[in-house]
Amino acid sequence: MRVFNFAAGPAALPTEVLEQVRAELTDWQGLGASVMELSHRGKPFMAAAQEAEATLRELLAIPAAYKVLFLQGGATAQFAAVAMNLAAAERTVDYVNTGAWSKKALTEARRLTGRVNVVADEAASNYTTVPEQGSLRPTAGAAYLHYTPNETIGGVEFPYVPDGAGVPLVADMSSTLLSRPLEVARFGLIYAGAQKNIGPAGLTVVIVHEALIGHARAGTPAVWDYKAMADEGSMLNTPPVFAWYVAGLVFRWLKAQGGLAAVGARNRAKAQLLYRTIDTSGFYSNPVAVSCRSWMNVPFTLADPRLDPGFLAESHAAGLANLAGHRSVGGMRASIYNAMPLAGVETLVAFMKDFERRRG
Amino acid sequence: MRVFNFAAGPAALPTEVLEQVRAELTDWQGLGASVMELSHRGKPFMAAAQEAEATLRELLAIPAAYKVLFLQGGATAQFAAVAMNLAAAERTVDYVNTGAWSKKALTEARRLTGRVNVVADEAASNYTTVPEQGSLRPTAGAAYLHYTPNETIGGVEFPYVPDGAGVPLVADMSSTLLSRPLEVARFGLIYAGAQKNIGPAGLTVVIVHEALIGHARAGTPAVWDYKAMADEGSMLNTPPVFAWYVAGLVFRWLKAQGGLAAVGARNRAKAQLLYRTIDTSGFYSNPVAVSCRSWMNVPFTLADPRLDPGFLAESHAAGLANLAGHRSVGGMRASIYNAMPLAGVETLVAFMKDFERRRG
């Protein structure tokens, strides 16, 4: 029995992928061993790793000038690695603050870099908006402009890609990468923790233009030096082989779904259905400006928070799992990444309407 | 069909553990989701994580003054993290060089720390020995003394724990932790990549005395700051939940095997059987001084290296997998970690004798 799992991350994986993992868990490719038990430098895993990268490149149409790295440490490690690799300690770096994850990124950058310039901060809207298109002005000579295209907690999403005006754009795409087509060439560097749309936690994908690597500041640990890792095919140290293998299966699954155009259309439909349900009710609400509502993470509140425990208990009993909002904000949150089928959102919406009718 | 898998790492896991992982892969604890798909902060995973730590503490009788951390990045990340956490940039740090992994550790330390003092180097023996007991003299005032109790490539192992003489002892136990009982109180810090005796690659266990944390140098990234990680129960960022869960199953399995005294006795018997076979043949040889031969990694050569391809092909066909030596040294290597049953070594030994009879 599988539930509809709305967890924000680690999040649901496609059931078909998990079934394949299960089928070959103790004997992968007829080798008499699990993929977890084999050398990352052996031919079988090397082939799987290369196929994973090739499929990811195909899905996102990643230009040849970009390196794709499979690293450890999650987005939080990248908060530091980006600064250490792209900016000398005294160089100015620009950050956009649109909520909890932007703030974590810039707080970590402040530990490492002298001049962290917050070029936009959406505090005035209580982080329910993003900067108006065209309004972002990078600092002249900044090493990069960092932003968070999708805020997993706030449910706020950029409906556009900012113009770096010559300053490399760095994006934490942990909760949005692979959710729709993307023009990679607009970015200097994209990073994403795997545990939303890619695979198991413990893997981080970094897509970086080759012009930005090779400039890590002195004292950058080898495993965090993009150039050192790129030169070794992400195998300077033992990579997280199982997570990389699962990511490869997810990429293959995305391709079988019709690629990112098809996946994106389905994600838009899922989000529209859920927001429409919220907006047409007098009982549920979502605070985010309509133009920048996330397709991936939909926070919502009930008219009476005393009904929250009942909502959670009854939805859980109905096979709709992990709808509690982030501990910092409360309420509800439905994370509807790629692996959530439309049927899951339809079931949720039907439950929400029924709950409102009975308890609203 | 499962082979006897002699891979050095990622290495064999207990078949019973993998079978449990498989059984609950798509529905863990009746939650209708995989353990990979659930929040690390939810009650089910928190309970599993805490049980894993408690079982590890019980197995190694870890004193309460030590923190146990579940991190990412492998031993190679710790090569840097140890220096960043335990030593100011200009402080002297001591390293013992007994082979490939020691050398990697001290090379990384040199990138980060001004004064790396190599207090012993076994180059004269071509790294087939360790320093004589009692001969190591830490530098007065050194931040720590780092050594590698077991060299995975050279198959060289310390038969004793060095005396730090007041300087905290730091040990890379990636390939030996949990292979036998250990007196943790002799160490300041122990670290181990998981992929030999603990679980899937992508997890690193750090056991550190609380007096050594809280002194990370300025600019240490948060996810590499032992104090920051200890304060957050290793969940400052999303941990590698699947690897942590498997590690917990492995710890439980070790307990069911009778704990580390029983496991150690079995490991000694496995190693003795293999070394005896090598030493009593005129065909196989192992270059390591008898007193410091590894229980975990047994490199050996054939009298005629032209027979290597035949040995590898025939052993593979006999269900004895991954016996090729490390790419840097060639020959053969049998890694016989905890998950390798005595029957595996018995089968290998029988094959070796038969091969020698036919081809020697």
- Which percent band covers the strand fraction of chain A? 15-25%
Largest sheet of chain A: 7 strands, mixed
Order of helices and strands of chain A: EHHEHEHEEEEEEEHHHEEHEEH
Major interchain interface with per-chain residue totals:
A-B, 69 and 70 residues
Q: Taking all residues together, what is the mean pLDDT of chain A?
A: 97
Model description:
Two copies of one chain form a homodimer. Chain A is an alpha/beta fold and 360 residues long. The first copy, chain A, contains nine helices and 14 strands. Chain A folds into two domains: 16-256, Type I PLP-dependent aspartate aminotransferase-like (Major domain) (Aspartate Aminotransferase, domain 2, 3-Layer(aba) Sandwich), CATH 3.40.640; 258-359, Aspartate Aminotransferase, domain 1 (Alpha-Beta Complex). Chain A has helices at residues 15-23, 43-60, 74-86, 100-112, 226-231, 241-256, 259-279, 308-317, 342-359; strands spanning 4-5, 66-71, 92-97, 115-121, 145-147, 150-151, 156-157, 169-172, 189-193, 204-209, 284-285, 297-302, 320-321, 332-335. Chain A has a seven-stranded mixed β-sheet with strand order 2-10-9-8-5-3-4. In chain A, strands 11-12-14 form a three-stranded antiparallel β-sheet, with helices on one face. The radius of gyration of chain A is 21 Å and the shape is globular. The model of chain A has no long low-confidence stretch (mean pLDDT 97). Chains A and B meet through helix 1, helix 3, helix 4 and helix 6 of A and helix 1, helix 3, helix 4 and helix 6 of B.
